Amino acid sequence: MIEAALAIVLGGVFNAAILFLVSAGLQLVFGVQKIVNLACGSFYALGAYFGISAVQWALGAGTPRPLFLAVLLLSGVALAAIGPVIERLLRTIYARDESFQMLLTFALVLMFEDILRIVWGPRTHVMGGGLYTLYGQLPFGAVKIPVYNLLVILAALAIAILMGLFLARTRFGRIVRATAENREMSEALGVDMARVYARVFTLGTALGTVGGALVVTSTAASLDMGIELIVDAFAVVVIGGLGSMRGAFVGALIVGVLKAVSIATYPELELMAVYMIVIAVLVLRPAGLFARATA
Amino acid sequence: MHTTRRNFLKLTGSAAVALGGLDAILAAKRAPLFAQANPVKIGVLPIKSGVAATVGEGGMRGFQWGVDRINAAGGILGRKIELFIEEETNPKDTTERFRKLALQNKVDMVSGGISSAVGLALGPVAEEMKMIWVSWDATTQKGIEETMPKPKYSFRSTDNECEAVMTSIMAAKHWKGKVKTAAGLNLDYTYGRNNWDAFQAITKKYDMGLDYVLDLWPKIGVTDLTSHVAAIAQKKPDIVFASLVFAELPIFMKQAHAAGLTQTTKFIFPPAGLQHTAMKKAFTPDGIIFGHNSMYFEAPNASPLLKQFTKDYHEKYQDYPHFESDRAYSAIMVYKAGIERAAKAIGGKWPTTDQIIQGMEGVEIESFGGPFKYREDHIPDCNFYAGFTTSKNRYDFSTIDPVEIMHTKNLQPPTGMGFFKWIESWKA
Asked: Per residue in A186-243, pLDDT tens?
């Protein structure tokens, strides 16, 4: 019984790990650039499609099968090269109203969906060849947990720790935090804002593309996958607090585990349970659990 | 004038030439009368984006294949077909596009419609605008019973429950006495809920003695089903009945396989055909009851038509077709056959809309899945295919063997009869 409960919670934590990566990208970009980047879901979908193609190409070229996880990580990181290009486009609306920013990033979501359809076609893309279970399965009560799921959870945890260290301990991390706190003061002190924005956006993009690349082994690449995730990612940032990395971490855990437990206990509550928490946070702590309230 | 033999011959000769010429002119005018006229304008509403785009794409490919063949053979009564392709999205926007096709493009017929919700919205608009609409796959039992009881201009799809009925009957036939518990994993919309209700009603009718231990309702487009898999594993059902239509199906199968669920549980996937090439052997076990709806590309009774289509499809798209191609192909071919039948009845003239409708009612065509025709209530009668998954094939995905074929006469209620009353009337 306890093993079954733990297996259900682990399923939720796996979902939370992916949610965290995408939400962290959303948080980072908002924290510094003050843009609600809806296209983070598109980066996630792009990472999934590109990841499948990269693995197929790499295995076809003779790469040993156990290295497919490394190929996925690399493909996600490489794909972040689109970040500076998108950021260049977003520069035109930094000074505009938030509604314009959201409209532009939503337009990007729609355009990316068309790009995915044109390049990969509308059919579902699945990574076959038994790669999902290549690293083995651990018996866990009535179910087995694929080791791959645990590796993804560990990877997300490692990325969270590295992000924390990067923001707290490195020179560029301090600049990023200073920019998030007070853009004008940072600029007055000589910070090259265009450079900071381009780098931060690229990092945010990488979190999404790596998330997509990692998840595709256990799921499939489909056109709507980005939009599906954006909805959950918004629940995460509302609960955790817009712009907060710690908020993304805790929010993702709450959403992922709550959904898993709801499905196992009372499936009709799967969505409602999450949005009850969202409403409670909005009423009792409007800035989210970890963001500081602003006047 | 005195008529000599020479004059008479001249006169009759001239008359013959003149009459012959006139006849030739008339013949020339008569035969290509429609050829010289405008093309037949047909509006199409395939889904192009989102999670169901793969369904729309399969349908559009089958429809286009049919149109290309008709045009290559000279068109419908000599009139080539011109397509006006719009898009199926939500009910409101799709009905607006339907109106645009009718009023602005002035099409002669509209075809398409996959979503149940869109189908329920399009039917009344087609009736109101007196525009022939041939659906591909958009009908639910509720729709048949309530929204369009006696349609004139709408030609609908088979009952959505057909594949659930067929696979449930197969489960009763092959697994009765071997299973005790069942769990449902069905998409959280009309189709999924209707299918789960149908499965329970049929398995009860067959007295399988099943205990329905769990019903889960994932949303369309969900990309992670690990929690659903864990919840199912906790209940340890003997059967999982899963109406998953889009990417959710291979995702579920992959995650269920990785969790070890496939070693102990039997599966029924009524609408799996739409995802058949995504069901890789690596994670799809043998022995799943797997529905292919109205067409299976490797059917044992495959006609030369199906073989040709599958060959052309694979050469062009490096893929294998699913049943939506059959639904769309039959739509255009019934329309063509209806026009030709009506024209024949009125001496070769181009028929009116009402005459075309009469021509379409009951006319039988050969579709990819076999003979296809509409009943008097504009619901199709055709073959349905399902079988047990096997990995013994030349592809990287699972196929079915043996293949079972049932006719819709045994899979959907007769005209005017409610679904559950019909099941009650069975002699199981």
From this structure: 989 999 999 999 999 999 999 999 999 999 999 999 988 988 888 889 899 999 988 8
Distance (Å) of CA A31 to CA A89, A90, A182, A243: 19, 15, 11, 4
* Assigned fold of B36-158+302-381: Rossmann fold (3.40.50)
- Best of A123, A253, A258 to disrupt the B interface by mutation (most B CBs within 10 Å)? A123
DSSP summary character for residue B303: -
Q: Nearest Cα to B163, choosing from B50, B33, B269, B69?
A: B269
Query: Which residues in A lie closer than 8 A to residue B278 (C-beta atoms)?
Result: 123-126, 220
Q: Judging by DSSP bridges, how do beta strands B383-390 and B399-407 pair with one another?
A: antiparallel
Give the count of Cβ contacts less than 8 A between chain A and B. 152
Interatomic CA distance for residues A207 and A80, integer angstroms: 8
pLDDT band at B200 (very low <50, low <70, confident <90, very high): very high
Give the model confidence (pLDDT) of B246-292 as tens digits. Answer: 999 999 999 999 999 998 899 999 999 999 999 999 999 999 999 99
Q: Which CATH architecture has domain B162-293+383-424?
A: 3-Layer(aba) Sandwich (3.40)
The residues, any chain, with a CB within 8 Å of residue B84's CB and separated by 6 or more, are: B41, B42, B43, B44, B101, B105, B107
Q: Which residues of B touch A142 (CB under 8 A)?
A: 233-234, 236
Domains B36-158+302-381 and B162-293+383-424 share a fold: yes
Are the C-beta atoms of residues A225 and B221 closer than 8 Å to each other? yes
Q: With contacts defined as CB-CB under 8 Å, which chain A residues touch B281? A: 128
Q: How many CB atoms are located within 10 Å of the residue A68 CB?
A: 23
- Beta carbons within 10 angstroms of residue B130's beta carbon: 12
pTM confidence score: 0.87
Nearest by Cα to B163 from B311, B327, B310, B396: B327
| Angle between helix A82-90 and A193-215 (nearest 10) | 130
Q: Could you tell me which residues come within 8 angstroms of residue A284 by beta carbon, excluding any fewer than 6 positions away?
A: none
Residue A237 to chain B, least CA–CA distance (Å): 20
Alpha-carbon distance of B362 to B338, in angstroms, equals 9
B216 with A267: Cβ contact below 8 A: yes
Domain positions in chain B are: 36-158+302-381, 162-293+383-424
